[in-house]
Design goal:
Elements (H helix, E strand, L loop, with lengths): L4 H16 L24 H41 L9 H51 L4 H69 L7 H55 L3 H10 L14 H4 L1
Helix pairs in contact: 2-4, 3-4, 3-5, 4-5, 4-6, 5-6
Length: about 300
């Protein structure tokens, strides 16, 4: 059966279309714009990108702000200190506090001198005790080899051993005195001096901003910007608050320091006096009682160190 003409025309049309555009993809329909701008980006993406950019810059910006603030403060403080030394600027003075600070520094200086002398005493006295111990051993050895002088050598050997033993006890007391005085000078007083240093820096910084404010207030009003004047007043109040805070801290610190210093030195001076007096008077009982009174462990002379099994 032959195909109809209509079927043949449809077949020719289909084959011609397939030969001209094989596997063609239909194009999307274009809608009329009508003056409306279409944004292909997600809504709010530009705000997010700008916020992220600001967040990425914030650490650097913060560091720059800190550096800028530090530079300005350092410049003002340096300028203020130079002006004070040249007599071109006044400084805030708390007479009572300044005198107290000066006494503390002078006290530390004198205590450090006592500490130095005490260390020298221990060094020289340790050499004497070691020499007495060696001398006692030499007398003992000669007593065994010299029968005709055995009693004399033994007497001297016993005397030197007793002196060495008593000297070790006195050294224990002196070392305790040195340890306590070292703690007082290098830790307790130094901690207060660190607070004083912060107070002095706050004082210089406050005086620097105070001088700036005084300079601005002395100028004619039409020459001073209200914004700059308000900012200077704000900084002045801020530095004044910091200065007063550090001043109160120093007063409290010095009060407790004086109480602690008197308590420590009363105990240590009593120990030093009793131990030295008992040793040079030959009162062994009083010397040992002094160490027990201050809870100082007695150092046993010529005692062999314990083995590692005994220490476990």
């Amino acid at each position: 059966m032959e195909p109809s003409r209509s079927q043949e025309s449809v077949g020719r049309a289909y084959s011609a279309t397939a030969d001209e555009q094989p596997f063609s993809v239909p194009r999307p329909l274009s809608l009329p714009n009508n003056g409306i701008t279409v944004n292909s980006s997600p809504p709010g993406s530009s705000q997010v990108v700008s916020q992220l950019a600001r967040d990425n810059r914030s650490p650097t910006a913060a560091k720059l702000d800190v550096f800028k603030s530090w530079s300005i403060s350092t410049y003002k403080c340096t300028k203020q200190m130079i002006a004070e030394k040249l007599g071109k600027s006044s400084r805030t003075i708390d007479a009572d506090l300044e005198n107290h600070i000066e006494r503390i520094r002078d006290t530390q200086k004198k205590y450090m001198n006592i500490l130095r002398l005490a260390k020298n005493l221990v060094t020289h006295f340790q050499a004497v005790v070691d020499t007495q111990s060696s001398l006692g051993e030499a007398f003992t050895e000669l007593a065994q080899k010299s029968p005709e002088l055995q009693d004399e050598f033994n007497y001297n050997a016993i005397t030197q051993r007793n002196l060495s033993k008593h000297g070790e006890i006195l050294l224990s007391a002196l070392n305790f005195f040195i340890s306590s005085l070292t703690t007082l000078c290098t830790k307790t007083i130094e901690d207060s001096l660190l607070t004083i240093k912060n107070y002095e820096l706050a004082r210089v910084e406050y005086d620097a901003y105070r001088s700036d404010l005084e300079t601005l207030t002395q100028r004619p009003r039409n020459e001073v910007s209200p914004t700059i004047l308000q900012e200077t007043q704000r900084k002045h109040e801020e530095k004044l608050s910091e200065y007063e805070k550090f001043r109160d801290d120093v007063n409290i610190k010095l009060k407790f320091l004086d109480e602690n210093r008197v308590k420590v030195m009363h105990k240590q001076l009593l120990l030093f006096h009793n131990a030295v007096s008992a040793y040079f008077s030959g009162n062994q009982v009083a010397l040992e009682a002094t160490l027990k009174q201050f809870n100082i462990a007695l150092k046993q002379p010529n005692s062999a160190p314990s083995s590692w099994l005994e220490q476990r």
